[in-house]
Amino acid sequence: MSRQSTTTLTPKRRGSLRVHLESQLIVIITGAIAGSARVRDLGLGGAFLETERHLAVGDSLHLKIPAGLESFESDGIVRSVAREGVGVEFLRTSPEHLKMLRHLLAELLE
Fold first, then answer.
1. DSSP label at residue 23
2. CA-to-CA distance for 8 and 12, rounded, in angstroms?
3. Beta-strand relationship, 26-30 and 60-67
4. CA nearest 57: which of 12, 89, 13, 14?
5. Are 16 and 5 in contact (CB under 8 A)?
6. How many other C-beta atoms lie within 10 A of the C-beta of residue 21?
7. What is the pTM of this model?
């Protein structure tokens, strides 16, 4: 999967690296809080999502990021709220989807 974007690694306080995305990678939010958002930062433990939706710390989400023919999916919880979006921690990510996320991150860094 080739993406026309600039990506950079960003060290974070949480101890894991995040990839800052300049591309238009979209996440689909399903469940009680449905909609879509742009992924601004992505890492193994979570993501920062740019959205105009009014989400609160503690809101539970189910996230789906299309990745070629398959999609990365995970439950998540909003851990931080900023003017331009929300920080989401991935929860209960299956080993299969975690492997898919690692592959997606590796592709974004190419």
1. S
2. 13
3. antiparallel
4. 89
5. no
6. 20
7. 0.82
Q: Can you point out the beta strands (E) in the chain?
A: 7-11, 17-21, 26-30, 35-43, 46-50, 60-67, 70-82, 85-91
pLDDT in tens, 45-70: 999 999 988 899 999 999 999 877 78
Distance CA 98, CA 32 (A): 24
Q: Which CA distances in Å does 6 have to 54, 98, 107, 108? A: 28, 23, 12, 8
pLDDT of residue 23: 73
Q: Specify whether domain 7-108 bears CATH 2.40.10.220.
A: yes
Task: Provide the 8-state DSSP code for 74.
Answer: E
Measured CA to CA, the distance from residue 68 to residue 75 in angstroms comes to 20
Low-confidence ranges of the chain (pLDDT < 70): 1-17
What does the domain layout of the chain look like in residue ranges? 7-108
